[in-house]
Amino acid sequence: MARKDISDLQVCQAYKKAKEVRETTEEVVWPDELLANWTGEPMRVCERAAERAAERGYLDYGTALYMGWLTDKGKEMADNQ
Fold first, then answer.
1. DSSP 8-state code for residue 69
2. Cα gap 65→21, rounded to integer Å
3. CATH fold of 3-80
4. pTM for the full model?
5. pLDDT mean for each 10 residues of the chain (81 residues)
6. 28-40 residues labelled b (16+ CB within 10 A) or e (exposed)
């Protein structure tokens, strides 16, 4: 169980999907929870993968990473794969 087992693409897809769910339903879904469910990795590993994606410019956030959003670079990755 390591951060390297989760790709930046998976992180971007989780952030995209979480936003779609929040915008189309009343359900509150967070990207790190989606990522943990998809990969089977612990939440702390998923959070570290999201931090890595943010450092690489795919995500941006204010006070909390799990409430972040995709940058243009992250949107491009999530949409083109």
1. E
2. 18
3. Arc Repressor Mutant, subunit A (1.10.10)
4. 0.90
5. 82 96 91 94 94 96 94 94 73
6. eebbbebbbeebe
